[in-house]
Design brief:
about 180 residues, alpha+beta, four-stranded antiparallel sheet, 6 helices, about 25% strand
């Protein structure tokens, strides 16, 4: 997504996630619209909210224009909210799938500092700090977990979550991979 002076836009291929965001925003009196956005050969849904007040509020939490390359871990975030925060990150820019026969949960960001912070947070909650790698094609930093470590992280990530506060497509994929996994993890 992006932030401008009077507008917030969230883009996703997952309409369910955008509809949940719109419902949450509506509770605070923010009207929004969801439309199809075509960029080149790809298309996605875009949720747009026009609200100077909302933009001012999210800026207080450290969100700003062109944040992708410079975003940092929100130091004010209490540990009991980490799973919710990271679930939002992974729902937006994460991957849950297979790498060969191993479960892989990974996250991509343009900010090396943010990737390092996510790696450290994961290390604190599951006892294993994943290493980072730079994806040359997309110019992003990746944090990834495989096999048993991915399953342990996913269990922590989704513990206590509900349909209303997670991307169900990714959650269902995680559950499916854990139930149907054939590899020795």
């Amino acid at each position: 997504g992006n932030l401008q002076r009077e507008r917030i836009r969230l883009a996703s291929n997952d309409l369910d996630m955008l509809e949940k965001a719109a419902a949450i925003l509506a509770q605070f009196g923010n009207s929004s619209s969801i439309s199809m956005n075509h960029i080149g050969k790809s298309a996605c849904q875009v949720l747009q909210v026009n609200s100077v007040e909302l933009v001012e509020q999210v800026r207080k939490y450290g969100l700003y224009e062109r944040k992708s390359l410079t975003i940092e871990w929100p130091e004010f975030l209490e540990r009991n909210y980490w799973s919710h925060f990271l679930r939002g990150c992974f729902d937006g820019d994460g991957y849950i799938g297979l790498s060969g026969k191993q479960i892989l949960i990974s996250y991509a960001t343009g900010s090396v500092a943010f990737a390092e912070s996510i790696s450290s947070a994961i290390g604190e909650v599951i006892g294993y700090k994943p290493s980072l790698w730079k994806h040359k094609k997309w110019n992003t930093y990746q944090v990834g977990l495989y096999s048993a470590k991915a399953k342990r992280f996913g269990a922590w990530l989704y513990e206590g979550s509900e349909e209303k506060n997670r991307m169900n497509r990714k959650y269902n994929r995680y559950v499916e991979l854990c139930v149907n996994e054939k590899s020795d993890v």
